[in-house]
Design goal:
Elements lengths: L1 E6 L5 E6 L13 E5 L3 H4 L3 E7 L4 E3 L8 E5 L3 H6 L9 E5 L4 E2 L4 E4 L6 E3 L1 E7 L15 E8 L2 E2 H7 L3 H5 L4 E8 L8 E6 L2 E7 L7 H9 L9 E3 L7 E3 L4 E6 L3 E9 L2
Parallel strand pairs: 6-17, 8-14, 9-20
Antiparallel strand pairs: 1-2, 1-5, 1-14, 2-3, 3-4, 6-7, 10-13, 10-18, 11-12, 11-17, 12-14, 15-16, 15-19, 19-20
The chain binds magnesium ion (MG).
Length: 266
C-alpha cells in the first residue's frame, strides 16, 4: 500500500494511492488518492469518503518525524571510497533534525555558509512502533514502510566541522517522498539520482554494507525508536554538487521519484 500525505489547500491529510504504478513507482494519469481518517501510524488505515485525483493535490512530506532522522554514513563501499574514506567497521550513525524535513517539490535552500552542497539519493526506512533492542529477525514487525530521501549535505562544512550536525542539519536538507510504500522487500532496489535530467547516481540496495534489518537492529540497540522516526540507509557512489536553479530527482524502484529544486537562501 502506498500512503501519501497531501493538501488540496486545506488541512493536510493522509491518503492511499490507488491506480497503476509502474516498476519505477511512476503513477499513471488516473492515479487517485483515497483519504484517511487521521495519521495511519497512530490510528491505522481508516478510509474516509474523500477521493481526489493525484494531479489535483500537492504532496507533502509523507512522514513527520516526531523525534529524529537517523542517517547512516558510508554504507556503500564505492561511495566511501569516492570521498577517500574507509568502509566503517560498524554502521556510522548521525542525526538530522526533524526540522530539515521537506516534501516533494519543496525548495532545497542553499545555505549562505556553504560553497559545496551535494545530493545523496537514499532509501529511507519509516519506523512504525516504539522499539528498542530489536533482533534482526523481528525488524519487519517495527517497520511501517519505505520512502525516498535526499540526504542533502554541505560537503565543505562536513569536512571542516568533522562531525556532521551542521553539514546535514540545515532546514530543507531532508526532502522525503513521494509517499510511503508499506509492502516492499528492501534487499535489492535500484536507487538513481538525476541532476537536471542527467543520471548521476545508479546503485542498488543490494550493495549496502549493512542491510536494512541490520541497520534497524543496530540503531535500536543505541536509541529507542519512535513511530515516524526515519533511518536513511546511506547513498551509493556518484554524489556531487548542486547549484542554485538545479533540479534533483531521486528514484527508488518500487517506491517512486522525489524531485526538488535548489533555491538561494535570502
Ligand atoms: Mg547520506
Amino acid at each position: 500500500m502506498r500512503i501519501a500525505r497531501f493538501t488540496t489547500g486545506d488541512e493536510p491529510q493522509f491518503g492511499v494511492v490507488t491506480g497503476e504504478v509502474d516498476d519505477l513507482g511512476i503513477p499513471s494519469e488516473d492515479t487517485r488518492l483515497v483519504g484517511l481518517a487521521g495519521d495511519p501510524l497512530y490510528v491505522g488505515v481508516q478510509l474516509s469518503d474523500t477521493e481526489v485525483p493525484l494531479s489535483d493535490v500537492r504532496l507533502l512530506a509523507p512522514v513527520l518525524p516526531r523525534s529524529k532522522v537517523v542517517g547512516i554514513g558510508r554504507n556503500y563501499a564505492a561511495h566511501a571510497a569516492e570521498l577517500g574514506n574507509e568502509a566503517p567497521a560498524e554502521p556510522l550513525l548521525f542525526l538530522k533534525p526533524n526540522t530539515s524535513v521537506v516534501g516533494p517539490g519543496d525548495p532545497v535552500f542553499y545555505p549562505r555558509q556553504s560553497r559545496e552542497v551535494h545530493y545523496e539519493g537514499e532509501l529511507a526506512v519509516v519506523i512504525g512502533r516504539i522499539c528498542r533492542d530489536v533482533p534482526v529477525e523481528r525488524v519487519a514487525d517495527v517497520v511501517h514502510g519505505y520512502t525516498v530521501a535526499n540526504d542533502v549535505t554541505a560537503r565543505d562544512l562536513q569536512r571542516s566541522d568533522v562531525q556532521f550536525t551542521r553539514a546535514k542539519g540545515f532546514d530543507s536538507f531532508c526532502p522525503l517522498g513521494p509517499w510511503v510504500e508499506t509492502e516492499l522487500d528492501p534487499s535489492d532496489l535500484e536507487v538513481t539520482t538525476h541532476l537536471n535530467g542527467d543520471l548521476r547516481q545508479h546503485g542498488t540496495t543490494k550493495d549496502m554494507i549493512y542491510d536494512v534489518p541490520s541497520l534497524v537492529a543496530y540503531v535500536s540497540s543505541v536509541m529507542t525508536l519512535l513511530p515516524g522516526d526515519l533511518i536513511l540507509t546511506g547513498t551509493p557512489e556518484g554524489v556531487g554538487p548542486m547549484q542554485v536553479g538545479d533540479e534533483v530527482e531521486v528514484t527508488v524502484a518500487g517506491i517512486g521519484s522525489l524531485t526538488n529544486k535548489v533555491v538561494a537562501r535570502d
